[in-house]
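Researcher: Next sequence.
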Amino acid sequence: MKKLLTDLGKNLESYIPLFRYWSKELLYAFRDITYKSTFCLQKPLSLKNVYVSDIGIKINLKKIKFGDQRDNNLDYHMHLESQMLKAYAKLLIEMLTNRDDSQSEETSEATLERLQIDPELKCILYECLQAEHKTHKIEEEAYQHEIAGHIEREARKKRELEQGESGETDELDLVNQFKELIAKQKSAEEEDEHVQRLI
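Model: Next structure:
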């Protein structure tokens, strides 16, 4: 597709049915790579990986370099999904501008800001571009929550320990007070006996 657009010297318009059809087909392709492949991509997909055939009806992804096998962890999967969403948005922006983000000094976000396209499509592309950042934010909040929970548990243990020691101290104080009370009572009884003898 990159060669096709370059040779024609044109870029796609967001309102034409062909762009919408290719966008949908590419979304299905990204979905399959995300959920059906067991290996990571070595580098993000671009228009150089997109091939058009059957007079534009069929979209194929080729020359994809896969890397290591994926981790089965949920956090890793969320990170992978956000990466794929960002790559998908960049690919659509490349289709609309015929400019590769890696070869441009301007970021995808800045390019999107300048594009005169349907506001709904612009919102979708913006959210896809921000997916990775939001995932990092969610992971950071989860990490902070876990740390706060750990600190709270340690503080609770410390309070319980101090209360336990305080309880032991209170028991000792009660015993000492009781002993003092008995001693005073004996002293009072002895004084009474002494007084009775004097009488």
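Model: The helical segments are 2-8, 17-36, 74-97, 108-114, 119-198. Residues 2-145 form a domain with the Transferase(Phosphotransferase); domain 1 fold (CATH 1.10.510.10).
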